[in-house]
Structures are given as C-alpha cells and as structure tokens.
Specification:
Blueprint lengths: L9 H6 L22 H4 L9 E5 L5 H8 L3 E6 L2 H14 L3 E5 L15 E5 L8 H11 L5 E7 L1 H7 E2 L2 E2 L19 E5 L2 E5 L4 H10 L2 E7 L14 H6 L3 E8 L3
Parallel strand pairs: 1-2, 1-4, 2-3, 4-5
Antiparallel strand pairs: 5-11, 6-7, 8-9, 10-11
Length: 254
C-alpha cells in the first residue's frame, strides 16, 4: 500500500472544498457522501432565531444553509483559506456569518450556555483529543440542546483504510484492511493535502459523549444511495456497509 491513497475516499472529497467553495449545497446541511441530508433526517430542529455553532465549517455550505433558515451562525475552522471560501459563500447568499479561525476545541470566544445547536460533518475525524472537544461543546451548549455530528463509519474504514492510508476500491468485493479495534491513525488525501484521520469505534464515541455529559438519543447508519455517489468505484463498498455514522447527543448536567 502506498503512503498516500491513489484515489481519495468519498468522504475526502466530501470534506475538501472545491476551488469555488460550492462542493456542497447551501440550502440544506449534509452529513456525508450519498446519504440523506438534514431535510430528511431532521436532527437539528427549527433553527429560526437559534444560535448555531458549525465546527469545521470548511467552505461554509452548511453555515450558509443555517443562516438561510434564520439562525445566527458561528462558523469555526482552523483554515484561513476555508474561512475565506465561507465568507464568499455567505456574501453570494446575502447572509451573515460570524467567522472564527480556531480548532474545534478552541472555543474560548463562545460564552458558556449560549449555543442552541452544534453541528459538525466529518471534521472531527482528524481530532486526536476528542474528549476535550466534547467537554468544550458541553460548556457552550444550553441545557438539553444538541450536538449533531458525522464521521466516517468505523466499519466502513475497515475495508478501505490501513495505518498508511486509504486503498482505492477494485472490481473485487471489498476486503478487510484493518481490525475494528485498531486505532492506528491513517492518511487521507483531502483536497490535495495529506491529513491524518483517527479511527474510533462506535462504543468509544458513545463513551466519550456520555462521559462529557451528553445523552445520546440518535445513532444513525444511513445506507448510501448509489445514484448519489459521485465516484462509482466507491459505490460497491458503500453497498456492503454504511459509509457514515451520525450521532446526536443532548447536553445533560454533570
């Protein structure tokens, strides 16, 4: 296996912004490649007048969708380039975003108990200390308000990811590349940049959330619609196992 994948996985393209910042729709929030979006899953609720924190906003597609729905949006990303794309997307849509350059655990600029919804799509896959992120999100959320996030499904990555990177699909049925409990980070080619994703089991994610003070009320494994998978080479693995894991946790008292 090569040090870097020869063909980025669908979630790599999903999280990587296109040059014009329009890789994802700006009228609805999405959770992953080929799976139902927020219009169908309805995990966030009515956003009119709500304060929404978009962690790892990328080019701002979801942030713009939230603003169009009447939310007051704080869009957070560590990349200045991505935030510039988000600014351009907001300008095109004639909506206002508060843009903050920061990592997902660097939320000192957000007051405690001031956020109604926290959303993140695939951005937390690169985080090493996810417990710290969950603690910070718990601090800024209002009581009983949700954190909704998606990640590459830990079972799907067993078929396509190893410790040195991703392996592109072939015409043969998918084969296992790593053990389910192997937490060795692996390399992803994301938008031309080599980044490292940290695999976690579903149980580990559930435990981290509950320890941080969240009650998990939704754990979804939506099947991918082959017609919506842009790269047909990945449609076969997605037919075997779900590509994306979506979780919702509500803030409880500690």
């Amino acid at each position: 296996m090569s040090d870097a994948p020869s063909d980025p996985a669908p979630w790599s393209r999903y999280t990587a912004a296109a040059p014009d910042g329009h890789d994802r729709p700006t009228d609805v929030a999405t959770y992953g490649p080929g799976i139902p979006d927020e219009a169908e899953l309805r995990l966030l609720g009515n956003l009119e007048g709500k304060r929404v924190l978009d962690l790892g906003c990328g080019a701002g597609s979801a942030s713009v969708a939230f603003a169009r729905a009447g939310a007051k949006v704080i869009a957070v990303d560590p990349s200045a380039d991505q935030l510039e794309l988000a600014r351009q997307a907001a300008e095109e849509a004639d909506v206002r975003l508060e843009l903050q350059q920061a990592g997902p655990a660097e939320l000192a600029f957000v007051r405690a108990d001031g956020i109604d919804v926290v959303y993140s799509a695939y951005a937390l896959a690169e985080v090493v200390d996810l417990d710290r992120v969950f603690r910070q999100v718990h601090r800024v959320l209002k009581q009983e308000c949700p954190l909704v996030f998606s990640l590459p499904h830990p079972i799907f990555t067993m078929f396509v990811a190893g410790p040195r990177g991703l392996e592109a699909p072939t015409d043969s049925p998918p084969v296992l590349r790593r053990r389910y409990h192997d937490d060795t980070p692996y390399v992803v080619d994301r938008g031309g940049d080599r980044v490292t994703d940290v695999p976690r089991t579903t149980g580990a994610l559930f435990t981290s959330l509950t320890r941080a003070g969240f009650r998990v009320d939704h754990l979804l494994e939506p099947p991918a619609d082959r017609a919506l998978v842009a790269d047909k080479a990945w449609a076969e693995p997605m037919a075997w196992v779900p590509p994306t894991l979506v979780l919702r946790g509500r803030k409880q008292g500690l």
